[in-house]
Fold Substrate-binding domain-containing protein.
Amino acid sequence: MFRMLSCAAVLASSLTCSLAQAAPAEPPTLTVLSSGGIMGAIREVAPAYEKKFGVKLQVLAAPSMGETPQAIPNRLARAEPADVVLMVGAALDKLVAGGQADKSSRVDLGQSFIAMAVRQGQPKPDISTLQGLRAVLLNSKSVAYSDSASGVYLSKTLFPGMHLGAGFAAKAHMIPAEPVGAVIARGQAEIGFQQLSELKPVKGIDIVGLIPAEAQKMTLYSGAVVSNSQHHAAAQALLDYLASPQADAAIEDSGLKPLPHSRG
């Protein structure tokens, strides 16, 4: 009787081990911290990518820079768990230099350009020339711009170089923690400036167009694996996919310009 019980116990144990070995592993969940400028692209890619590769993507909105707690550098400084960052390339370089992002994983994903928007239904002024843009800035009642890459350029370089006068500073406001388009849609500013890819998803606004070439500044969006990621290989695979021709349509739909691909 004892032998029979022992044998039964061994068989049960073997069966349990076999079942455990046969059970499929849970798909990894990648936490992706994404700046608004490339958020549209990763959200468009996510459903098909998850289905094809069996990876779950948790995409969180996180500005590339700024003082808000949600900003990527501030999240990583608090040691929030994350696997991938998608953000302004220049800001990513600082994370790489500080050891928070893996240099070898870094990929460039798309070019972004600054656009102007008005509240939906309002007249679209002519900003096709530098003179036209200057006139619009001077004549507008209020101006909004972001606290990220485009806003820093506008407030520190473009606007001062256009000699808009002392009164302009009083009506121009940097918007932290939310899309500039949302402020325009609520009627809290007459005109607003941000990356085209950040304005496109906002309802209640009309995009006038890109600011003229001589006033424009291209922002490069890039991605990297967070240094302390627990899913390094899966995170790198996502970045490689985003940098491949398979993601070009999503990159372009979001308002970014895809980068050329080298022929293998």
Remarks:
- Residues 1-5, 7-13, 15-20 have pLDDT under 50 and may be disordered.
- The two ends are 68 Å apart (CA to CA).
